[in-house]
Amino acid sequence: MEGTITISQIMLRDHQKIGTLLANLNNGMNKDHQKVLELFHEFIWTLEKHFFIEERIVLTDYNPPDEKNSAAISNLLREHDHMLKLSRKLEEDLIKNKKVDISQLQKMLIKHRDYENEVLYPMLDLELNKTQKKTIVQKVTDYYKW
Ligand SMILES: [Fe+2]
Ligand SMILES: [Fe+2]
């Protein structure tokens, strides 16, 4: 029943997964170094895939109708870039055995996620046509089958 899945539904699953990984990371921060590195690596890997899906699948068919929407999308893309850079820096520090603080990254991610859940995805579900949405859901599903 792919046709009935909305962009919100399919992307919310991803957000939940990232939230769980971040919580695991928070709980595991005082555990052994190797374990923290493994958790962090899984977190970055999942985050990169998610941003790729948003940038290359979810947002490609959307033409912002006005300046305000266009600026909001640009801002989201900038935040992706910033959060990936920050994540990679934290991973580098972890590899060097430095103490890291993930609270800033966590804060940014939560704000970004909430905006997408509450504003972006519902708006896309409203503004894209049925065929566009079906294509997006199909592509995201295929991506996860690889
Ligand atoms: Fe995003
Ligand atoms: Fe997202």
General description of the model:
It is a single chain. By secondary structure, this protein is mainly alpha-helical. It has one domain: Four Helix Bundle (Hemerythrin (Met), subunit A) (Up-down Bundle). It contains 5 helices and no strands. It has helices at residues 7-28, 33-58, 67-95, 103-127, 130-145. The model has no long low-confidence stretch (mean pLDDT 92). Bound molecules: fe (ii) ion (2 copies). One fe (ii) ion binds at residues 54, 76, 80, 112, 116.
Brief sketch in words of this structure:
This protein has 146 residues and is mainly alpha-helical.
Layout of SSEs?
Blueprint: H1 7-28, H2 33-58, H3 67-95, H4 103-127, H5 130-145
This protein binds fe (ii) ion (2 copies).
Largest sheet: none
Unique bound compounds? fe (ii) ion
The helix tally amounts to: 5
- Whole-Å distance between the termini? 20 Å
* Name of the CATH first level: Mainly Alpha
Structure keywords:
146 residues, mainly alpha, Four Helix Bundle (Hemerythrin (Met), subunit A), 5 helices, 81% helix, 0% strand, binds fe (ii) ion
